[in-house]
Amino acid sequence: MHAWPASEVPALPGSGRDLRIHDTATGGRVTLVPGPVARIYVCGITPYDATHMGHAATYNAFDLVQRVWLDTKRQVHYVQNVTDIDDPLLERAVANGDDWAELAERETALFREDMTALRMLPPRHYIGAVESIPKIVPLVERLREAGAAYELDGDIYFSVGSDTRFGEVSGLDAEAMRLLSAERGGDPDRPGKKNPLDPMLWMAARPGEPSWDGASLGPGRPGWHIECVAIALEHLGMGFDVQGGGSDLVFPHHEMGASHAQVLTGEHPYARTYVHAGMVALHGEKMSKSKGNLVFVSALRRDGVDPAAIRLALLAHHYRADWEWTDAVLHEAVERLGRWRAAVSRPDGPSADALVEEVREALADDLDSPRALAAIDRWAAAQAAGGGTDEGAPGLVSRVADALLGVAL
């Protein structure tokens, strides 16, 4: 599966700062000091109802992580999956009268278009669940051989009791885990499971549903968590720098993925840092496919909204915050884009050398994009007031906005 084209990232004078970021697993802030190649895995979409603003906010957050790393002169090895086979996708295909594979392909293509328009930097490896099945099957077989998986009516489950570190990613108690498992794709009430929280690794073939050769597992399809583990281990290995996604993935997805990987390899940690973006609401409720209260990037683009304004609307909110999409949010972003473009269109302006460092420091401080925007706002206001004769300043501000914030002026 191919990703989308990369936009050029302008070079800035000097070098950026190491990123200090909130780690879900410890509940505190850590300083990321990757090697020459920073490694990040961000969980991708299940391809239906793409791309809504909740998606866009999540991928914007991890695009900022990449840009901060690039500014420190590191390379970035970014991997993202596509869950192109899963129950919700099949259910939507049936409801719409679609072929599930055609639905997945169409929505994935739309997602690529939206990511390109928003200038999100693409992953080096963009991998679908279906194409990963030959890598997934041996992992499930290894877990079963190790006594960390068991069969129930043909389905294969992972035993969470096989990982002595289970629970350290989310820090939740058993009852909270059980409630979230039921809400987020698990089956804690299924009779016969060793532990209600045990997640499925391999689902035996169901009548009328797609299935694949699972070798000793029998025909079927993979569970959700093992999909990401197979892709991450293949392309990044253990101990990669950041596991990212929305806050709704902390449990069960990222908790289970860590346990799968740690039992498979005997190593710890799966990821050094767990970083999660907040949720976006509409009309007072979390924006979600199940509720149908979605605002789509593609619909805004069709209505003539500049993708740079959409990006500014996202950047106006701290990545970890839960916030609400409104017409006012978009209006403010459109106005800000106009002010910035007017400011950089002049032949000279106030010096921007200090601005470069202000934006760098804001983003290094747990991706504080609102503070970064405020710094450029101040420069644009000074420019509008006619204060400055630095001929290089407008171009430098334009490069800062592009390189660090992904906003093309």
Topology readout:
Layout: E1 20-23, E2 28-31, E3 37-42, H1 53-71, E4 75-82, H2 87-96, H3 100-117, E5 125-128, H4 129-145, E6 149-152, E7 155-158, H5 174-183, E8 200-204, E9 220-222, H6 224-235, E10 240-246, H7 250-265, E11 271-277, E12 280-282, E13 285-286, H8 297-302, H9 307-315, E14 323-324, H10 327-344, H11 353-364, H12 369-384, H13 393-405
Parallel strand pairs: 3-4, 3-10, 4-5, 10-11, 12-14
Antiparallel strand pairs: 1-2, 6-7, 7-8, 8-9, 12-13
Helix pairs in contact: 4-6, 6-7, 9-10, 10-12, 11-12, 11-13
Major β-sheet, in short? 5 strands, parallel
- List how many beta strands DSSP finds: 14
What share of residues are in beta strands? Answer: 15-25%
Q: How does CATH name the architecture? A: 3-Layer(aba) Sandwich
In CATH's first tier, which class applies? Alpha Beta
Order of helices and strands: EEEHEHHEHEEHEEHEHEEEHHEHHHH
* Helix/strand structural class: alpha/beta
What is the residue-averaged pLDDT? Answer: 96
Low-confidence stretches: none
The CATH topology is: Rossmann fold
**How far apart lie the N and C ends?**
31 Å
Q: Tell me, what's the shape?
A: globular
Q: Give the CATH superfamily.
A: HUPs
Write down the Rg: 22 Å
Give a structural overview:
This protein is α/β, with parallel strands linked by helices and 409 residues long. The chain has one domain (1-409): Rossmann fold (3-Layer(aba) Sandwich), CATH 3.40.50.620. It is built from 13 helices and 14 strands. A five-stranded parallel β-sheet has the order 5-4-3-10-11, sandwiched between helices. Helix 4 (129-145) crosses helix 6 (224-235) and helix 9 packs across helix 10 (327-344). It is globular, with a radius of gyration of 22 Å. The two termini are 31 Å apart. 47% of the residues are buried. The model has no long low-confidence stretch (mean pLDDT 96).
